Amino acid sequence: MSGSLRPRPGGWRRAATVVLAAGWARPSPAAPPLPPLPAGGFRLLLLQRCQDQGFLPGAHVFPGGVQDAADRSADWLRLFAPLHGPPRFGLRPARPPPRPFPGLPDTDGAAAAQPDDAAPAALPDDVAARVCAVREAFEEAGVLLLRPRGARPAAPEPARALPPPPGLDAWRERVRRDPRLFLSLCEQLDCAPDIWALHDWGGWLTPFTRPGGRRFDTSFFLCCLSEPPPVRPDGSEVVRCQWSSPSEATESFTKKEIWLAPPQFYEIRRLANFTSLSDLHKFCLDGTSEGIEKWMPITFLTANAMVQLLPGDELYSEDSEYLENVMSSGKKIEDIMKESKTLHRLVLYSHHVFNIHVTIQSKHKHIYPKTYIVSKSRL
Length: 379
What we know:
Helix content is 20%, strand content 22%. The protein has 379 residues and is α+β, with helices and mostly antiparallel strands. Strands 2, 3, 4, 5, 9, 10, 11 and 12 form an eight-stranded mixed β-sheet that branches. The protein starts with a strand and ends in a 21-residue tail after the last strand.
């Protein structure tokens, strides 16, 4: 078994997520029959976690998981060769990391975990995170985001997943038991993880809500696919899947058909800014030279709602006290909202009633979601 990435004091673990956005103009025969979308529209892959999972049981999430030491192994160097190698493996120059939240036990803002064997990392953090996201998409959904070895990046266009190989389920079980075997699968297929199709999208640090809760530093990537690939939930960690446009996912959430954690809800509303896959893909390509944002929400408890405060909000405080504590007020959220002008927050009234309030301006080329408020009849 490969060495896992153990958390440092404080319980933080490094993780990676990939948002798969697929074009739906001519879905493949393997795609589920769904209503047509507006011209150029896209749908997102959502996976439902098993109810017995310790983290976000039953939630619909994007593919992803905790990083393993195997994801940054030196063995990947020979697989990326001969065309791609250190320091950037064919990716664009790395941007400065996001400014850390005060008190995080790692200088890059990611309360990072270290390999159990303490071996020097062979891959840069952003490359290892991409390998992790590709591996998790395979383990959870059977989707192979791979590219033939030695193939140079094609003209900028949405990617295609590799057709599932024979013995898919057997390989997934092996990789689940030992993540090092994902490299063996790639070698057998003579492919490398398509790290070039995964675009920086942002990141989230798990906010404090209760003592002893799991804490993750998760890098979010976005991958545009020209068509939806076949998806086969692993039946263990993931029990169901669905392809939904941002508006469809929002409606399913408000109708209590699915449940989304606040970061997933926020990102889905953020993706609602894009009307076509081509616009989304162009945004990803154009934004690769700009900074990304990684946030740790601060939990703010009011008399009748929980609020997740995000950077830029007038109540947000970069104070290490809030790494392990919440803010609170005896006032109702309606009274607090009347007093507020500069907003970047999610207001959680109940399990399926979330509001998003955004009045701040975007940094770099980062796009924030538009303010989203549910009808008063549902409060």
